[in-house]
Design brief:
three-stranded antiparallel β-sheet, eight-stranded parallel β-sheet, 439 residues, TIM Barrel, single chain, alpha/beta, 17 helices
């Protein structure tokens, strides 16, 4: 695919708030001490080259002739249409798309960033967003430390442009606090938590309160990062916690889930669909659920200094969620609960990521001007570059001052990062660096 951004230019720094690696086997095989390696890998391990995943002592496999490699797909020059029309497992796929090397090679990433017009980036995991579903807390702790050390080394390739986000072993609050303190000392600006039910607990349950206070104390940004979800629907522990006398919509046979995003994907799978309902709607469902919960319960007000980035969920849904929270808090004021104005609370605590093709967000730019964080999502298959974002911002006549904030200023303010203008024009030539489907 020919590179088409030659000749493009910009004169202000862009910060990409959600860009991914795809964890190589060395995260486990080199960064976990040898005496802990076999134990940890029994509970959680992914070999991205040989295409197998271990979680909670269960193993699953992928076929390299059928797998789409969604986490390592995109590079500058590709479009969603090209990716969607290219059959995985073919010579055409290998030559047109291939596995993007930047997912594990920071120097390849820096070249991709130059081609995409990106000056600075916050780096996020791919496989490790499933870490909360690991049942063994000790294994989760070992794996989290290994990932964070690997991500730190990855970003050390250019400390002015690459910034790592940490993962936490939330299976045990004490472990999570210990790891948060450790990464904060190393300069991490953010740590991730996925807004799902894991081990029978949701992030807003009171047992997590000491962790959120530690985020406040350390000044680390809480990254609420969503991800695809399907299967694994039962949660007996949550059933017990909710109690036998709870109100039920239908019957005593309610099915409990770890993520609201499961519903679409599971139903579509049962219907025989091959479409990615989990990616299309699962992210949005997780983020909308968390946002609605925290606004209508006063949860954010318990932590007045907490800063939150809502990531990988799009942003166009936000005005509706804010409006509905306000409407029903007004309608139920007679309950006596003292809960703040949702708009004021959200704008005080939260920032939200958007992607280049979110037309509603760009049309309503004045609602997002001070809270929007641009995200490429590279090298995941639905990624895009900043040149596309600039075209759409121009189309909807977003003022220059708002563009600069939405494409970088808000992120640097949130994370406390100095600007670095590394890319003023697209390179004349760009050649993607890819890897084979086979090892």
């Amino acid at each position: 695919m020919p590179y088409t951004a030659k000749g493009r230019s910009k004169d202000f720094p862009v910060f990409d708030c959600d860009s991914h690696i795809y964890e190589p086997p060395e995260v486990w095989d080199k960064y976990i001490p040898q005496n802990n390696r076999d134990f940890a890998k029994t509970h959680f391990y992914r070999d991205a080259d040989r295409l197998f995943l271990v979680r909670n002592s269960r193993i699953s496999f992928r076929d390299p002739d059928k797998w789409k490699y969604p986490g390592e797909t995109w590079h500058p020059g590709l479009t969603k249409k090209i990716i969607g029309e290219t059959q995985p497992g073919t010579k055409d796929w290998d030559e047109t798309i291939g596995r993007n090397r930047s997912a594990r090679d920071p120097y390849a990433r820096l070249k991709d960033m130059d081609a995409s017009g990106i000056d600075q980036v916050m780096i996020f995991p791919s496989t490790f967003v499933y870490l909360p579903l690991v049942e063994n807390a000790d294994a989760a702790y070992i794996c989290a430390r290994a990932y964070n050390d690997w991500a730190y080394d990855y970003c050390s390739a250019d400390k002015k442009r690459l910034f790592p986000a940490a993962v936490l072993p939330t299976q045990n609050v004490d472990y999570a606090i210990e790891e948060l303190r450790r990464v904060a000392k190393r300069g991490f600006k953010s740590a991730l938590v996925r807004p799902i039910i894991a081990q029978g607990k949701y992030p807003t349950f009171p047992e997590y309160d000491p962790l959120w206070r530690e985020f406040e104390e350390l000044g680390v940004v809480l990254g609420m990062h969503t991800f695809p979800s399907r299967g694994e629907a039962m949660s007996p522990e949550l059933d017990r916690r909710m109690g036998a006398n709870r109100k039920r919509l239908f019957s005593d046979e309610d099915v409990l889930v770890y993520s609201p995003g499961q519903f679409v994907a599971n139903i579509m799978q049962i219907m025989g669909s091959k479409q990615a309902g989990d990616a299309a709607y699962g992210f949005i469902a997780e983020a909308m659920t968390w946002t609605g919960v925290v606004l209508m319960t006063g949860w954010l007000e318990k932590f007045p200094r907490l800063k939150v980035a809502i990531l990988e969920s799009n942003s166009s849904w936000l005005p509706l969620v804010l409006e509905k929270a306000q409407t029903y808090l007004d309608l139920y004021k007679h309950t006596g609960e003292k809960i703040g104005d949702p708009h004021e609370v959200f704008y005080k605590h939260c920032f939200i990521a958007f992607e280049s093709d979110e037309m509603i967000t760009l049309r309503l730019w004045d609602l997002y001007e001070n809270i929007a964080l641009w995200s490429s999502d590279m090298p995941h298959l639905d990624a895009s570059d900043v040149w596309e974002a600039l075209d759409h911002l121009e189309k909807y006549k977003v003022p220059r001052s708002a563009r600069e904030k939405m494409l970088g200023g808000n992120a640097r303010r949130l994370y406390g990062i100095e600007p670095e203008l590394a890319v003023t024009k697209a390179p004349d030539e760009y050649q993607p660096q890819t890897m084979s489907r086979y090892v």
